[in-house]
Description:
The chain is of the alpha/beta class. About 30% of the residues lie in helices and about 20% in strands. The strands form 2 sheets. A 10-stranded mixed beta sheet has the order 14-13-12-11-7-10-9-8-15-16. Strands 3-2-1-4-5-6 form a 6-stranded parallel beta sheet, sandwiched between helices.
Amino acid sequence: xxxxxxxxxxxxxxxxxxxxxxxxxAKPRAAQKVAASxxxxxxxxxxxxxxxxxxxxxxxxxxxxLVAAADVYDGRLTLAKELWGGQLFTTRDYRDVLAxxxxxxxxxxxxxxxxxxxxxxxxxxxxxxxxEKPMVxxxxxxxxxxxAARQTGRILQAGSQHVSSIxxxxxxxxxxxxAIGELNLVEAWINxxxxxxxxxxxxxxxxxxxxxxxxxxxxxxxxRPFDPVRLFRWRNYRDYGTGIPGDLFVHLFTGIxxxxxxxxxxxxxxxxxxRYWNDGRDVPDVMLAIYDYPKTxxxxxxxxxxxxxxxxxxxxxxTFRFVGPEGVLTIGDNSVTLxxxxxxxxxxxxxxxxxxxxxxxxxxxxxxxxxxxxxxQPRHDETYAAPPRYNxxxxxxRNFFDAVRTRRPVVxxxxxxxxxxxxxxxxxxxxxxxxxxxxxxxxxxxxxxxxH
Length: 452
């Protein structure tokens, strides 16, 4: 393995850690004063919950300025002006935003079924694009986004912030240093136990065909009579969203691929169902998926286990575990912990199942090799925590805007975005088709399982 290092390399990499501060250092903040010519004028398309969070994070980057907003619901456009000033240009039609010469970059935070079209249209209008995860709703949209980015030369960054997190960067450093030995398993889960966590968002009392451009919301989705529940809780429906895999598994894939420099799995199988939130949704509220990753130059072969439960009685919890025979890396609560347990001094024996004379002969030889000296097994845990109130989304936007200014590529570009979204969407394919699905990580396409 090209990244495998010796035990000595690892010990040197973490030497002195116990005496050093455990708080990770955030990236230096950009200078507070930015020349007017260096300002980046941003538009938001999709002013929902995540869209508003994105704008707040984006505007914490010096030099970023919000100039336009688009949404199909008039109430969100009113709110945009209330939050960011009456001078803000607002419209129901995102194409009005793309036509404006004062827009440099576009944040796409719409329902999933609009991501690829708006991202492609924006790049063709010579705008740089920050598109929320998952980058695509359907696998065949991925190639079109990749090609549009290549042809236009625009910056496109997918909006899953783990690749910009100092916590995940530390996990990557530890993995590369050989901290856990030969990786064999990655497991991750996101558990929730609240209506908001299960996408039961509020419906505004003024929602009507007069305040909502229903046909524009539907786009290429199947035509249906006006139903504000499907708009404001769109994640619950396959017509507009991607369920648990596209909304949450994709975050996990982003983190895994970043830490391991992984391209993707060879196959996937998923299970789940609607176990609690029987509210008319047509996607599961509990889902588990298993993936096989092959050996590559950056990691050994390993198994990946993902789980999301929207009715977890113990409350919200998100955890990653990278497991090897020499240690475990656990990411959660904006920190990464390396847990290491020294191996036993002797392998153990079952000689008491032998005849007495045989047991005696065996134990004489065994104790000559492993003297009977009980030893304490020390526990080694090192936790590296982000500073209080650290927000990786802010770093993700800072990296995006740096790329907009310098034209240097981003980590989470269109190819990375598809390599995270693709395996996530395979879980939906497996669940709804009731079979395992093959995947070619290099070509980023589904394959026949006969080829595996």
